[in-house]
Amino acid sequence: MAKKPNKLKARLPRGFLDRSADDIRATDEMIGRIRAVYEKYGFDPVETPAFEFTDCLGKFLPDTDRPNAGVFSVQDEDDQWMSLRYDLTAPLARHVSENINEIQLPYRTYRAGWVFRNEKPGPGRFRQFMQFDADTVGAPGVQADAEMCMMFADTMEALGIPRGQYVIRVNNRKVLDGVLDSIGLGGEENDERRLTVLRALDKFDKFGADGVRLLLGEGRRDESGDFTSGAKLTEEQIDPLIKFADFESILKGARYSNALDDLLGPYPLPFQEHPTTWSDPESVDSHTQAAWQDKIDSLSALVELPSSVSDCWNIENLSIFALLFDPNEKIIEGLNELAQIAALIESSGYSEAQIKIDPTVVRGLEYYTGPVYEAELLFDVTNEKGEVVQFGSVGGGGRYDGLVKRFTGRDVPATGFSMGVTRLMTALKNLGKLNSSDVVAPVLVTVMDGDVDALGRYQKMVQDLRSAGIRAEMYQGNWKKFGNQLKYADRRNCPVAIIQGSDERSVGELQIKDLIEGKRLSEEITDNITWRESRPAQITVKEADLVETVRGLLDDQAEDRRRQSEG
RNA sequence: GCAGACGUAGCUCAGUUGGUUAGAGCGUCGGAUUGUGGCUCCGAAGGUCGGUGGUUCGAAUCCACUCGUCUGUACCA
To answer: What domains sit in chain A, N to C, each tagged with a CATH number?
Structure first.
């Protein structure tokens, strides 16, 4: 006997998703809300295509062994490499550069689009996902960064995430760079190690202070036994970094019982001559105390805290912890910018519960040059299996002053951020915060006779309903199995079915069946004969009353749904 | 990329120390019911046991390789 031909296996590449009607409607809803916020802030849309020349995306030309590592790349007819965009920022920089003469700077713009990354997908991470970006191009001042943070916070709230359930964390690359300089990691020869250190710091949320300490030192072994080699810093370098990054727990006494003792204690600072304790000022010799006070005074003179900034913004604490290092110009400049951002945000009425200065934020290792910010969800997200998922950030951004200059040679400072629409939607969906759509399935006009005249009459009913603004359709399957028509209507959640056979037709009537009410009534009927013959929730009306009756039923059902959702 | 776990029907899974013709539930389709959704009952279809090679009289089962999925980790512009 001949082998049956192998069936083609239907399969989807991993990391890609088919989107359901509910998903699409929910995404549209989200995008609408985000867009409304951006528009209100005075931003205009712009759209760029999915493909760009690979070099314009800022990616080096693909190497021949693995041309698709990280990005999806193809070669055009003329052998030039093109790639699917992996974010919306690099294409924007290209667009601005190419149209720099027509664009009025500062250019305030937003856009939503699919981006593609050829890397291993994980929970809530896909190879195609949607981002929604906003950028201000040609604005050098921190006020532009501050505005981005505020708009970010407004967007989160517009999406229905209540205050306290999200936070926008703000940091400044200049502070981080200055800190790394001061522990001897400045200069080009340390580029690689700086990256390793920043990556390690970025994992603070995931692995905590102890894990980060390992990554800064020799390395860390994960639970599968795989080993990640570390930055191989010395204890003297690691200690202040950890304390700087973890300063909030230190202040709260959460991690170190004698926190401020530690601050002074175990590693030599230039001004520290004797080990001492800070928590008990009596035990500190006057010389050391004075040295510290000098340091703090001189730092306060350098970091101009605007008078309007209150303590809650962490600037002062951050400044004190910057003393762990020898504060250089970069640190001072970075702290000043953060202080100004805090002042601007505060005077606009935002609180620390919404936007927070946080030295552990590391983003965009490649191109960010100043303030960086990211949005994090603070509620637990559970997946389909009911497990709590580490969700991390749902969007972020920062200042990228060099990106346009790559093309134009002109200094065009810019700042902007990106919302991860797909990620956010996964979170909101799992949280049940997405109002599953209000779209009601269509009214079904059933088919009792299949001749052209009859079909014409059914189609006319459908058109009458549609003309009245009611979603409606005629059954398109095998009409001879009438039971299947109602089964179809039931599974589609059709609210109402219209039935007209020759009996009704001959007296100018039709049957209108309320499928929702009928389903409710059916719960009390166990016997099939009764169920079929009682024809629950079914009424007979004149043909002319079709539209009016259906509209009445739909209104009643909508009212019921509204009441139910209210409790 | 690295490490680990797992691949049996459309889905969720069972399958004994290697032993005849690989099973169940759900779902699908048909019928009981030519004009009424649910329930119930009867019946049917649906499998290269991920693939290739090997050990064996005999492999879903043991071995090797390979592909795929999942988890952790790396990368994440």
So the answer is: 15-50+85-165+378-439 (3.30.930.10), 174-271+289-376 (no CATH), 443-565 (3.40.50.800)
